[in-house]
Amino acid sequence: MKANKLTAGHNLMWESSRMILPEHKEQLLKERRNQELFHMPQLTEEQLQEMDLIIQAAIKQNCSITITYAEKYGPAQFSGKIKKINSQEASLKVSNRHMVLTLPFHKILQIEKMEGAL
Q: What InterPro entries does the record tag this protein with (predicted)?
C-alpha cells in the first residue's frame, strides 16, 4: 500500500495542525453560547414589593445598595448609590466611584442594602 498525506507519520509537516475555518469556529461558539444563555427566573409579588421598599429606604437614607441583575450568560452584581429612578423608561440609575449603570427594572433579580459608603 502506498503512503499518502493522510497516512499517519507520513505528513509530519502538517500532521498536528488540523485547521478549522474562522466561520465554522464562530458558528460553533455561537451555538455553545446559545446553550449557555441565562434564563431569568420569575419574581413573586412579595419579592418585587421587598425590592421596592429597599429602593425607597436607600434613597431616603442615601445609602449604598448591591443589585443582582440578569446578564446574557448569568447574573451579575453592581454596588453603588441610586441616582435616579426613571418611571417612563422603567429603569434605575446606580453609580459608584468608577462607573454609572442604568438597569431596566425587568433585569433586576435582587437588591440588598449595604452597610458603609462607597
A: YolD (IPR014962)
Between 51 and 38, the more confident residue is 51
Instruction: Name the residue type at position 112.
Output: E
Residues in the chain: 118
What is the rounded average pLDDT of the residues 46-57? 94
Catalogue the E-assigned strands of 6-104: 64-70, 75-86, 91-95, 100-104
Q: Are 75 and 82 contacting, i.e. CB atoms less than 8 angstroms apart?
A: no
The model's confidence at residue 32, banded by pLDDT at 50, 70 and 90, is confident
